[in-house]
Queue: 2 jobs
Job 1
Amino acid sequence: MISAWYLLFCEHNFSANTTYFLLFTITTERFSSENETPVKHQTRRELLDLVEALIEGAASPGDYARLEELVLSDSDCQTLYLQAIELHGSLYWDAAGIGSTHFEDNFNLKTLAHPVTYVDQNRHASSSSTRNSRNVRRTWVALSAAAVLLLGVFFFNQNRYSSLIEDNLAQTFSLDSPLSEETILEPIPELKLPNTPLKPVEALVINSPAAPPVTDANILTTTTDAAVVAFINQQLEQAWTENEVQPAPTSTDEEWVRRVHLDLAGRIPTQLETASFLKDHHPDKRSQLVDALIDTQDFARHFAGTWTNLLVGRSRNSNINRDRLLGYLENQFGNNRSWRETVSSLITATGSAEESGPANFLLAHLNNEAVPATAITARTLLCQQLQCAQCHTHPSIREWGQERFWEFNAFFQQTSVKEETIVDQETGEKIRLRTLVDSNKLAPTYYDTLKGVTQIAYPELSGQKIEEQTDRPLRESLADLLTSGDRPQLAKAFINRNWAQFFGYGFTPQVDDMGPHSPVSHPQLLEGLAEAFVKSGYDTHRLIKWICLSEAYQLSSKGSENIDTPEDGDPALFSRMYVKPLSAEQLFDSLLIASGVSPAEMHRRGQTYAQREEWLQQFFKAVDNEENSEQSTFDGTVPQALMMMNGELVQRAIDPNSGVVFRNVVSDPHTSELSKIRALSLAALSRYPTPEETTAIRNVLRGLVKSQTEQNVPPQLAVNEGLRDIYWAYLNSSEFAINH
Amino acid sequence: MSKKQSKQSGVPSEEFVQLFTRAQRPLYLFILAQVGRVDAAEEILQETNLIIWAKSNQYQPNTNFAAWIRQIATYEILKSRQKYKRDKLKFSDEFINSIAEEAANRSVDQDRQQAALQICLEKLQQEDRELIQQRYRPGISGNELASELGRPRNSVYQSLGRIRRALLECVTRQLATGT
């Protein structure tokens, strides 16, 4: 970490010591992760969870195997395992009251006199076995303790002592089999929340601490925005009560305005946007801002970008026209076309990469017998990891057999990519044309089972078969099947993805892995939301609005005393806002905002867009495998992000010639030094500096100015240089690189 | 009492009894790490103790007592595994061997470890401490505790997991920084 900072400063020729100090002041520790164990965080968490299952008798044979795998793979894991199990053992040992610290208190001569009375000869039930074996142990420790005492006190009477011991031994030896019969272990049931009826509210008031009255109203009859938001609140609150979690306080307007801009517009707010929101005293201002932001082109662009990344990845693929897909999605999100329509067109689009935006999805993935198309459709649109079932039966879900993957795959077998080269009549240029076409044959998939037997799979999804041959392309049937029903997986998957996008965590441990093996943290909430979303006609804007108006989305990212820690692998309770790293796109766009580029400029597919594409390409590389995945070197860590950015982008923002924001702040002759510092803080972090920060920054600034003027730099120039350092530090702070 | 006398009479020496008493806890942890279940570990400990006691006259004073009793325990673990070989819920030989070796090499000062645990237990929030105390009451399982508290089992498991993780981190820190 330090070395990363140091590198940054080496590149940047500012007075390293003072700015270093300044950076530290701004980079407050509240966002740092302090867990510095040799075992990777996720592995550590998985291992500890397995130990938990083990010691609570809830581990399956699979858990045992996984635990072994982890422990044997790495000596640090082995140590961690031992530490965890020793902690458990120590608690167990000491709690019996006979650990050496409480030794004398619990020593009882009676134990010695009748040690075997504790031992039941017919031990079968596991709990009584535990109890008895503990007593047996108690006997042993007491026995040895007694022996110590007796050796001292009754030394002269050796015969009596030894015979006593031997009697005890004889009786103890005569015990039956020491272990209970095989214990039948029950699996941990899924967390089930009681189904409480929805609370309706007349008017939606965010942040209202008073709970609305409970009636028997059902979500099915009222899916007004207010009712759905109240339903979300009620469901989450119930889980907080259940888990004894205190929700974090409501976020400040500064926190929230930055958050909602990053989440909805994909960028930080401009100085002006922040300032006007802070000045606004309308009680509904949050709700109004959500509505306003959803209506912007920024919103359409941000969501289209997010989904284009999910559907075809970020890396350039010469087989498709990625921009056409992006443009298509921008229209869909901007005009609030239903999610059902969007998915249908992605699945059923025909035409060439240039003619049809949605066709690019399948054009990208029909290679390798449409295996990528199958896997990616399942993963991105249904949040199901079917690809494991491609080669073998799913490790934990028997019903997800191999055939399930291939039956899904069969839907894509009629479709192929027609490749041709045409000559442009006007320019004479050769153009490669890739077009999606369907044959009208019912084409089954052939695949090899684990035993090497070739099998035939006919198109089938969730038990629904398409057997009769019609003129209708199979893809259309697939689109219908995906969007049929009251609460199809398609809706749940979209909700889970969106929820995770706004909160950092979804309702399942992995957002794109929903299935019988994956417990849903808030099942009632997910069901209710799915129902409301379907009833709304797959209205994406409304779904997003519900999430943004929920009480949980208003909460601060601070507080709640670490009880709700999905970072450690616990199911998220959404009792506070979780800190999310900015995506590469969000970082780029936010830096542009900080340099004063207008949002309108960013919408144009001009020079700025090209720069952004070029900048992004350095992080992402396509991998040609069966899932058409890609590698990313953008991992969102602060040092890395800053290393990457400490070039042109930040320089541009802090250069008065190119950075309009910075120029306007420093060149205003009517504002004080303090106002300038406050303005820079607002521009970069969407908040005013804290009093401590202000003091520290002013001290640093004075130091900088002093050292500069001593070298005969004119005072005004020295102040500007100092402010430049300060803005640089703000933009490189970890707070800038996260959404909190 | 001389050592010779005690050998002759078949009664363990005072030194032996002290070693034996002191070794109980680490021995139990040694077994537990290999079998994973407290009840199974206790049964094996009991069997091991019987052998140790019976063979006390074979122990050479001033040799490594811990290693000697671990050998006996290893044998008892093996016996138990053979007896319950149809049990699916158990570790592989490779795992057991590896853990036994690692556990034998660990040099943990048990007094410090215990003191650290005590400090960390005191640092817990009242409710958490009470929950842990209840969980480790003699003869109770997490499952039984859940039904006793009237809380969903999963929720109790989650709380226990969280508290134990906190304790683990605290103890590790205590041992790393303490004197």
Job 2
Amino acid sequence: MSTPRYVLDVSVLPNYGYGTRSLTWWGLMGMIAIESTVFVLAVGTYFYLMAQVSEWPPGRRPPDLEYGTVFTGVLLLSLIPNIWLQRQAEHERLPQVRVGLVIMSLIGVIASVVRAFEFTVLNVTWYDNAYGSIVLMLLGLHTVHVLTDLYDSLVLTVLMFTDHAKARRYVDTAENATYWYFVVYAWLPIYVVLYWLPRWTQ
Amino acid sequence: MSTIASGILPPDVRPAEREREATYDGESLDEVSTAQQLEKTWATPRGLWGWLTTVDHKQVGRRYIVTAFVFFLLAGVLAVLMRLQLIKADNGFIGPDLYNQIFTMHGSTMMFLFAVPVMEAMAVYLVPLMVGTRAIAFPRLNAFSYWIYLFGGIMLWTAFAFDIGPDTGWFAYVPLSGPAYASGKRVDFWAQMITFTEVAALAIAVEIIGTVLKLRAPGMTLNRIPLFVWSMFVMALMVMVAMPAVMLSSTCLIMDRLVGTHFFNPAEGGDALLWQHLFWFFGHPEVYIIFIPALGFISAIVETFSKRPVFGYPYMVLALIATGFFGFGLWVHHMFATGLPHLGSSFFTAASMAIAIPSGLQIFCWIATLWSGKPVFHTPLLFVVGFFVIFVLGGLTGVMLASIPMDLQVHDTYFVVAHFHYVLIGGGVFPLFGAFYYWFPKITGKRLSETLGKWNFWIFFVSFNITFFPMHILGLAGMPRRVYTYQAGLGWDGLNLLATIGGMGIVISVLLFIVNVVSSLRSAARAPSNPWSAATLEWATSSPPPSYNFAHIPFVTSAQPLWDQGEQLMYVRGLRVDKREILLTTPLDARPDLREPSPDPSIWPLLSALAVTALFIGSIFNPWAVVIGALPVAIALTGWFWPKRNEAMEVESA
């Protein structure tokens, strides 16, 4: 076989990159697109069921506001350390990344605890009626995302405090922060639908 | 080295990062050593361990294709049983309960375990080769997807073997499938099979999108992407929007059945039609998820056998995308008989008719290609011509069904059965068989017999029409779907007998195909790397391709690189040969951007799939399985993603 005709040398290229340059980002976006579709369809189901009955919520008080609102506040405030952590990861500053991951893991724990209390003040359960079913479904779906990101953050924290703190872990940390944005932004419409919509329709 | 392309590198190249003691492909390494080193790096380990741990997209894709084909045969056996039962009036061969299970299993297997998986499997095998890269994006996810699919299929068929097969139709309408009318576990197995197959399909969709957007060979700009790859890309996008709907609805169904939610229970504020909306928001796009990959097969085959580029490339791409969009605007046409408001329905009628436009446009472009080329009617092209005839007939009955008065008349009759077999077999299976004949030499290194192939085609084509054309007339005569028998004297006997005879012909044609495959695999004759003189990159490597796909990554300067550059194909050098490395390019204009590691073989995808399987099947029997089962799933996924120790640049393991 004759020598192939080369027109370019790619060995000078870096072997990781952030954001749209990395394959991880695109995989994450695929996952977010899929999960967003699930959320949109679940919220659509909520509205569909709302249109089936004259009274909403049917025979129930809306969920109590306090814990859900505290949860929303925690999530919104968590954006600040999250933005900071993502930036530190992209600059590959190990001490700051360690601090950021610990903070975000703690926030994940706090959010999960508040979420646990939210489940106790919904004033309905899944087997009461279709309204209860979809409320629990929406809150449950979102909770899975909170727990997933918390678990990811804990694993990353362990990796960053051990000798696994290598270049590609910074990419993973940055993308984990991207995923947390999704967890926060996906919650905001669900919060409005679960807590405020039934107050406006009463 | 020529540097005509060096201007397209990104600004942050850091030559200092060239790892010491690393080996790269290029002039400094002769071709024999390059191949040896790459093989050592990329080969799957031998033996059972290698079989269980492989992440090679070609091995996984081949496995996926074979498994899907086995499910096709199993569902085909069920079809034969149904045809035997309907061969004459008042037949007592199969009773109503078993018949219900059989038609449900036939439809569910064909749709969820054969048609969609086999199309994705073709993409898994071919897309990385066609875009000129060493591996698929997220190869471990790919392995996981296969295992999940396999376990879901085995679960459903095991349940069927124990007389707990689903019996409420492939779309499992509530209330029939709900807790009030379907006791036992039959529908639960169906609902969980959905979860298995949709997880598998969504995983592949993400891989295809990642591969198409980030792993294309340098120079393969958007307007140089093969139409096959475009079609798989559109399919993947549709999967990401459609599949979540059926996962959500089947989850609601199983929760209604197992933990007492009321999503579909009208007595507690639920609604039965909600099921139909969610199901068909998936179910109609599903048809296009099967059909659009088939369009990709056809474009590839038509181009190769008419020896010219497909006429109207940009319109073909836009038509694919338009079909993808329209596919989501049609779902209510499955629900015209449910009493929805007429104004709303008329929009869906309009959309259902409008989707004929991009489909028709593509057919005219192919005809123009064949007309202006020098078509060679080998078996793959024969199947494409068969597609034209059968699919156009199915499309015509589709336009008829889009009109509400007609739909109400023939709803739930054999007219609908005839229609969707014309579109699905015509639009899916015929192109797929053409694709089998076309890519068989690439995948196996052997060629199928043309003589047997032509017999296969003609018997299939004639028998298909003998089987399904009479069903149009039976439907117009009032024969309902899904009846296990009918009375004598209704005038349906002769046509049913004819359909059964045709069905036997299809069996013979499929058996001929299997004979052809087995005999060619046993023959000694090897296929060359480009037996059809085709234009796209998968033919630039040996048949079958080596584990690393290409010794060097091609540099593409046209949409038909092998025709336009031929022996003068250009390459880039500088990927490592001593560890798994892939070249990432920019999404739009495919400029080289990064060298990223690609994961090694791993047992964790299989272990993760086993953990997920335990959770899914356990949840059928006890809802707490979801909570308890989450622990092994988390452990397995952590093992999957845990970086390996003591590696200078550890392998990313997505």
